[in-house]
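ESCALATION

Customer reports they have been waiting on this structure for their group meeting. Please prioritize. Original submission:
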Amino acid sequence: MWDKRYDKPEYVYGKEPNDFLKENIKYFKDGTILSLGEGEGRNAVFLAETTRKVIGIDSSKVGLKKAQKLAEKKGVSITTEVADLSEYTPGENHYSGIISIFCHLHSKVRIDLHKKCISALKTGGIFLLEGFIPDQIGRGTGGPYDPDMMHSKEELRETFSGLEILFEEELIRVIKEGPFHDGNVSVVQFIARKT
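Update from on-call: job pushed to the front of the queue and completed.
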């Protein structure tokens, strides 16, 4: 599905970084940041432009090829890796930050991956997520149609209960991120720090 979606000249979610990530870049210290479900590279390239080392993981080699082209055009370097997130293990105590921007997986896979992310963060490391919540279904402005693939503040709070929660909110906001994310959306925004 994702190779087919990305297999076109335009960047289907745009070339600009996610607003929530951009507004909260201050939380990320120097070090390596892992981007889950990176797609066409907009967020990884932004992080690289802020002089951070970035690894973008995605199941689509077509998307990650476009990510490398975008990085080259912007004069930065990113590392990309094609991986199935249902089987991916990010390692232990390795990353200063992990981001998950509209990375929607079935609940069992998602919760398991998020628990692995806690282990993968260094002390002081930041986990930042923005994703759709079930209220998004039917809006026609982005996201999957399966509620099991949606996030919630309650689930995130429970999964990351051992971390210091810095910010959590469910809200409706306007996004302009290419033709597939355009208009009013229902999202959860979440930031936590490993202590």
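Sent to customer with the following note: The first strand starts at residue 32 and ends at 36.
Escalation resolved.
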